[in-house]
């Protein structure tokens, strides 16, 4: 009979059978279990019982995230923003395009807490409805850039050789395009009033950053011995890439993408401010900020609310990215 | 006595609780003497050394008790400024990984010379000449030509020599070497250990050698302290401990290593794993892995029993040391 | 003697050194492995020792087809496996498996233990039908001394020694005939090393495995090996049975290597002679001409710089334990391992007649040496 090893972090304390409640802490879930087992082992018995408790790195990260106040605050905020982006009627009963010129630039009034803009539109309603454009652009652009970037970067990193060299040079070219100048040039020829040209432009400029991250993290992951081990077993490239490399390379991409989401929202506002992003009648914080900027002395409230909403949204995503990085970064483990 | 550590306790605060890394360590080393601190990873051997050097990360580390007497003065109650003067000048440390312990953007000459500039106030030129002298002393060939080279331009063995040169620069009376040769190949390890022993003799320094290698210990140590779960479980002159260990852990270690000089049968394997420092077993920390464990071992922490008194006292922390000694 | 199960002939691996970003041109080569030959018999353990950079790990990678040799052949049961088409290679891979050095990087942290040990069956579905796999994995866990209930746990929940057992279980899954173990215990704590070494020995008996055991620790290699090859700068410099190598080394590098190993017995201090080599191992990108060890050898003469010593039994040793292949023009026996057998266990092998009973005998000179 082979001698058995004991679990990695056995407390080896006879716990008198008292159960430690698994209170959402990183470790104790398993500790309670191991304690019962190890007691048996100390007494020389075979371990029995249902020793089935899996704890993957993802669930570990989730445990840690749940206890991080930054994560809780930012994710609640984002949840709220997403909800009002989908159903702005939930908290705003008015019509953002219904304006009354007679109320131009008036301050807050009952039922209109944020006052009116130059056109006499309700600032509160417009601020609420503005979330939709920002969140749509942010989420779609991030998804697009992340998918395109990690696919290209991941393949380049995994296979290397000339494909890698080619991709890296192309990415360098895109890195060289100044964002605002590029926006002014490319988007000024577009006449569509939908969000898609802006999304497309941001994806075009954003993918190289994510490709670079994905490439680097794939190169790191593929050097691990477990990839060699699978190769020695006869695993093909598809299996190596999908089962061994990608799951271990995806964390940095997620972190950077989350932070990028915030900056993409800010970029959309910048482009809209410059008049080349979203166009009326789309309601957007960028457009409203642009309209308000010239009236900042007369009616500062017009600027304050959309700009505040924008800052808060960007901040929420960047905070989320920070929290996710803390949870996924193996160096802090 | 050059250095005396008395009842040292060190704790670390972690996400999952307080880890008791060092639980009452006593050891001492005299001028010209070599003390080997032997232990596996997590035994507390390096943490003790860091506490002595005053380079422990605090927090999360915390010295929970004890005293560290260096030439009769307690380092733990000393003012930081005074301690800083001692560090480097009176006691120095050699680390395992020379590459990461040397600054990659400074030439080795500049790093060696810095010791003299900072502590002795020498001019850059004189310091540079001193650096060449030091490199000669640790037998780096063509020292004059290589003094301007950067750490990555040296081989692992040569880098470790530079580390030794740095430690020796101010002729300290105590050197702490933390696994100084673990990263090196055997032939290079022999060179480096040889050099270290020679310099120690020459300068009459005290040497604390921290290692997990029973072979290295047997080669150079005068006395040895075996650590397990943050405690010294056995301490003795080196010849006595190899001839007849008085603690089952020491015995197990000695029996579990394959020998160069004989083919041997199946190796003795200590069962189980080293304990988690968050949950050190009650009683004797070694009891779950001990072949001699009795009920008393699970309840009572063994005190330090005196095995022999003179000339160097020999102690062991086992209730059944007599049985172990004569097994 | 029957035909070896694995035979390596004149194995060479050169890594090109290139310059330039887009248009790379070769400016040299790192000669990691430069003409290595050996055979491995059924049920045997061949130990390969050497210092870092000697090419032993590259040999291991070529044996399991992770690296393609620059030239030379690796024959498994008489068939050269270095130039096989993909399908045939996959079949051969089932029979030669590897155990890796670092138990922390050799297991995929995102996979459960069951997935890791079961992966060989997914890659080679013909070995085990789907419904059978879970049972097989649990059997393997049991074989390597782990609780079969741990099947759903993740690697980071285990200690180093336990992870190495998981790596061994994965290597065993396809019931290979040959296992290549590259430094399988060097990352483990002393007290855990013995557990894993014993496990490897038990498995060898149980499954009649043949091992290529690669390590830098000469004591462990002696313990586990039937035959030993000593490598230096991409070549095997001496090979023989464990007694021949450890008690009757004839190559100066082997002697220096053995004399440098610290022996865990303070009594050895007094009676040991240490050969402290000067200098460092030369770069494999620019190895010395002739005998590669000559730059650090105390016996080197002009001949060593011009003539490559062949790995062959020196003709001045017609028989006896000294008569084993040694790549030195001036091969001479020199005992460097002190005999300090501890009292409890009697010495396993009778000392050879030529050798003095203890301590260090003088050096015997070959007839060709002045």
Automatic annotation (TrEMBL), chain A:
Keyword terms of this UniProt record: Cell membrane, Membrane, Transmembrane, Transmembrane helix, Transport
Membrane-crossing segments per the record: 70-87, 135-158, 170-189, 195-214, 249-267, 303-324
Pfam families named in the record: BPD_transp_1, OppC_N
Residue ranges, annotated region (Disordered): 1-30
Domain ABC transmembrane type-1: 131-321
Record-linked SUPFAM superfamilies: MetI-like
UniProt xrefs under Gene3D superfamilies: MetI-like
Membrane topology of the entry: Multi-pass membrane protein
Subcellular location: Cell membrane
Family listed: Belongs to the binding-protein-dependent transport system permease family.
Protein name: Peptide ABC transporter permease
Annotated organism of origin: Streptomyces cirratus
Lineage: Bacteria, Bacillati, Actinomycetota, Actinomycetes, Kitasatosporales
Automatic annotation (TrEMBL), chain B:
Membrane topology: Peripheral membrane protein
Key words, A-Z: ATP-binding, Cell membrane, Membrane, Nucleotide-binding, Transport
Alphabetized CDD domains for the sequence: ABC_NikE_OppD_transporters
Family annotation (SUPFAM superfamilies): P-loop containing nucleoside triphosphate hydrolases (SSF52540)
Predominant location: membrane
Annotated InterPro entries: AAA+_ATPase (IPR003593), ABC_Ni/Peptide_Import (IPR050388), ABC_transporter-like_ATP-bd (IPR003439), ABC_transporter-like_CS (IPR017871), Oligopep_ABC_C (IPR013563), P-loop_NTPase (IPR027417)
Domain ABC transporter: 5-254
GO molecular function (one): ATP binding
Pfam family, one: oligo_HPY
Compartments, record wording: Cell membrane
NCBIfam families: oligo_HPY (TIGR01727)
Family listed: Belongs to the ABC transporter superfamily.
The protein's name: ABC transporter ATP-binding protein
Organism classification: Bacteria, Bacillati, Actinomycetota, Actinomycetes, Kitasatosporales
TrEMBL record, chain C:
Domain of life where this protein originates: Bacteria
GO molecular function: ATP binding
Residues annotated as signal peptide: none
Keyword Repressor appears in the UniProt entry: no
Pfam family, one: oligo_HPY
UniProt domain ABC transporter: residue ranges: 6-258
PANTHER family in alphabetical order: D,D-DIPEPTIDE TRANSPORT ATP-BINDING PROTEIN DDPF-RELATED (PTHR43776:SF7), TRANSPORT ATP-BINDING PROTEIN (PTHR43776)
Name the record gives this protein: ABC transporter ATP-binding protein
Species in which this protein is naturally found: Streptomyces cirratus
Taxon lineage: Bacteria, Bacillati, Actinomycetota, Actinomycetes, Kitasatosporales
